[in-house]
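User: Fold this; tokens only.

Assistant: Input:
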Amino acid sequence: MARQELNPLSGAANDRLGDTPNAYTAKLNAMTTELYALVSGFTKTYWFDANDTATTATPITHSAGATNTYLTNNAAGTSTNTYNPDSKAVLWNTATNKFDFTSLKIGDTVFFRVDINLTNAAAQEVDLFMSIAEGSGAPYEKNISHTYYKTASTLANDTEVFEIYIGDEATRTGGARFRFGSVAAATIVVNGWYYRITEV
């Protein structure tokens, strides 16, 4: 649709030769409808950075072979930050230590950067998972990383990046959290995680 000129009164005041109020409204509605359709086709991006403080003082303890070691994050650190101009919902829930994706739509994507420090007493293999759709009838896990430490280490840094997409209702409504796995014992300090949402 081409731009529609709004015609004011053509001469003296109240000469009734310009657009009527109804004509003004019709032109404005037609042009804003076209503009809205154009803008709504764009994607939007916003992000959050949740910096933990609790595990610095009290690291998470992973018992050898445990399958229930989940990462926590109180998002209370000084590096906690956001770029969220449209006031979208924060996905990380510090009360449950889970991600809540219910504010997202099918087709949206979430990019993550997870930053932890690991202390292990000997050589060991460790895995980091994201448990997804836990509250649904179809839970599943995504293996984020598999790392082999040749020797004992103290606060070895492990930073991983990955992305998920909201591909079904189970993923969107079931919640998600990070799980640590290893056949050997370890302690974990969560520095935090950054996550960026691309909304379609």
